[in-house]
Records
---
Amino acid sequence: MLQHRNSEPRDPARVVVLGARGFLGGATCRRLAAGNIKTLALGSADLDLLADDAAERLAAMLRPDDSLVMFAALTPDRGRDIATLMKNLRMAEAVCAAIAARPVAHLVYISSDAVYPFRDGLVNEDSPADPSDLYGAMHRTREIMFAASAGDAPLSILRPTLLYGAGDPHNSYGPNRFRRLAAKDGKITFGGEGEETRDHLFVEDAAALAVAVLRHGSAGLLNLATGRSASFREIAALVAARFDRPIALQGSPRQAPITHRAFDVTALHKAFPAFVGTPLEDGLARAHREITETA
Amino acid sequence: MAVVEEVLRDDAVLVMLSQVPPGFTRGLGRARARLYYQVETLIFGLAVERALNPERFIVGCADPARPLPTAYGAVLDAFDCPILPMRYESAELAKISINCCLVASISVANTLAEICEKIGADWSEIVPALKLDRRIGQHAYLTPGLGIAGGNLERDLATVRRQADARGTDAGVVRAWVANSRYRKDWALRLLHETVVATVTSPVIGVLGLAYKENTHSTKNSPSIALIESLGPFALRVHDPVVPASAAPHPAARGCATAMEVCAGADALLVMTPWDDYRALDPAAIATAMRGRVVIDPYAVLNEAACRDAGLAYWRLGATQP
């Protein structure tokens, strides 16, 4: 459960963003800029967290009143193996060493719902984090690393569900890939009959919540999700409906047992009562429009 | 105990009614022959009724085979109900066991009622069929609620978990009941967000009832108070027949003199305490007064058919809105 240090939101002195060029990191930086919140946006080209001197270089940039947000991670499309896991842990190690040398005022770690196993259909912040793959294990380990390194700074761990939106560079199974398939092939193929249900969060909503956490100086754990899950078939149909031409929807032989994931977002309602997420249909429409306009 | 024992006659019978954890009575080390542990089974709001008409007496004894002392036995006999002597530990656990059985039943009701809400079933249609099963019984506790209400049940579940953890026995099901209760407590909040907050800018929320249950002024463990704690940003109107509006944990809750005043201009109406006063409300009048259409009535205080006829979007526990 999230606890707010600032009952009324106020702008942090400065936000240092690690992973600023990524999908969610970039969206968050744009939102911070729109709110005129002073930001030091660092991508891997600005600061390579795998470099031997990463900790020292980062520490030299940090100020005591900074809010530090860690988005930076090698996502599954960059590798799902042990080598990638270790690189991600070394990146976190560098950040932890930096904040140990130069403590900050607030620390926010962007984790993932990959820490939750699929055996429990309904997930909330009390659900055991028991990852079953290396990517989930990486995030869970990083959560613990940051908790051990935060010192007196309030630490917020945010676990987003699957994200979607116009600028997604990944090709993960779901709305983003469906859209690309539809545009390229005129059809969307999903696993089985698309029965599996998932919660998808519009990236702009995730960014808005990250900024809200920063402005409230929040500490604790929060899942970022909508509380509404849809089947992949339903999602494919919504994506297909955005196109002017007919898009075929087809299933494929099922390779793995059906799993479902739903989120109990009561904690989100309590932390940010006035927050209203973008309905899936609206978010997909907006993403489609943005992609089409920039194409 | 020391204070009491100081003034007791040597031949006095001491009967403890305070709920205690298993092992407590024997651990007192008093002259156990004249020490009894009697399980108290009062229900909040029905204390006098339960005291005057007990279903049975559960009596923990040093030696259950020995007859009860004459005077004590005479008092219990006067109520003409079964008297069940047993060892101390069994009696101490009996009260907890009663509450665990109730919690199990409530948890089944809550879990299946939620599925009913998602699949178009109606839990209230299923309950009579369950009660006609002798293994479940006519008096089974199967009404869905907003979690486990009352600190006593939660305390007993915590006692079972502690006892199990200390002795290496499995209390997973107890943990599941607690988790389900915590989840179910926020049913109204989640529904309010789905039906109103997600679609109405700056909604006005009306809440009927602040008390923990009807016929009491207590707000301890009140589902209404818990709900209101999460409504800070929204305009709020409240009414309760006995609890003042100042009890609402909200920066600007407006206390209303009448229930209809709560309805006026509201986008959502939540009936959070099943006061009899609210049963007489006319859904047509509610619909006319409200700006929105959503009525969240977990305890089915209002007439559901009349609410739907009045064009209200009516929600209660255990059923889907058609």
---
Amino acid sequence: MSAAGAEPVLQIAIAAKRYRSKGAEPVEAVRDLSFGVGAGEIVCLIGPSGAGKTTTLRILLGLDTDFEGRVSGADHAGMVFQEPRLLPWRSVEHNVRLGLPRARRGRDLDGLFAQLGLTPWRGSYPKALSLGMQRRVALARALADAPRVLVLDEPFVSLDDTAAAELRGLVVDTVDAAGMSVLMVTHNVTEAIGIADRLLLVSKRPATLIADVTLDRPRGQRDRAWAEATRATLAAQHPGIIAE
Amino acid sequence: MGALTRIASLVVLVAAWQVAALEAGSRLLPAPMAVLHFIIQEAERGDLAHNVGVTLLRVAISFAVAMVLGILLGVALGRSKAADATLDTPLLVLLNTPALVITVLAYVWVGLTETAAILAVVLNKLPNVAVIVREGARNLDPGLDEMARAYRFDRRTWVLDVLVPQLQPYVVTAARSGLSLAWKIVLVVELLGRPDGVGFAINYYFVQSTDVAAIIGYSLVFMTVMIGIDVLLLQRLEAHVRRWR
């Protein structure tokens, strides 16, 4: 699925991002982080926690504009936050429709609800759902407007193995079918090796790009042994970033 | 079980009142029946409906004005540090000014008019509403705000789907405490400078004849009306806004 050579859909070039606070030295969160994401590519951003990965996503989405550099391509991205961030006072149906601009909110979403297994829950409030199901609702909201780009921040964290595997399968099937580009932040290397076309390894604060690794084995042929071997190789090459 | 306990406690209260009235044997502590007798008489004269109606109208108008202004002010204070820094002190002063002082000054400066009466009640109640709603506006979930920005919510969607539902519990709290506050202040305002209303009537029977049956009768009728509004309207509204929890 890798789109090497094609014009990237997403382009990120952050020269510097600093957090300023009164009376303290500014903290540099990101330095010289540049990469692109091609059409139909799944790219995982991997690094230690607190490395500035979420900051990078916030900059990409225009939620943080106080940085040096340029980003482009995320104007109509679908976003899944680490916490589902659903409106608890609105039904599942209403929450998903909020992913659409007001003029298109009435459109037929039966297919999307069915695809994500949410049809029986359309009228429920988010509180009635498990975390895994709430994440599905958040994913449905991100997909409602059929975006070209999907941005995911640790979408499978704190789910049990079964729920995480189910949701991972849904994400991969959906983006492959639609030819979407995906940028996903995770600290789970094995998970990333399972689904990504490329892995971007970033350092501790300030986040800077250490390695851009292309995984060229087709996703369908990645077994456990291959994943573990790949992980071991990466861990040997980048001991500070990936634990043995 | 709850309803039975409530009725039982009411019966005990009325019985205790009856016993106390019999023991006292004084005009200054009339028995329940004497009060009921006054209420019926006053109703037949038409004065009861007129006075209660006038007072209710004053409560409704001043309550509505104070709620609307208080909500707008509270949201502004909670969302803008500059607005909060500018208006916090005047608000604190107003919050700590006795209702009586505000009322007297309103009559002195505006005149003994209906406008002055409404203004006095609004000024008494407004800071309470603003302070409660400010708390709500300060506690808005930043994660939901960020989500709304990521999905480029238009202003109307943000207000109706993100802001209002988060403020609703605070607004209902302000409304419930505000309503009981408003009617108590309306009575004072009427007592000091209006020719009708429950506050006027209570003052009239106090000054004219120290008719305690009349004073208790008017209070009881009006309290019943206000409790009815709270139970039938505001408590249901509260249950409605909390239904998703």
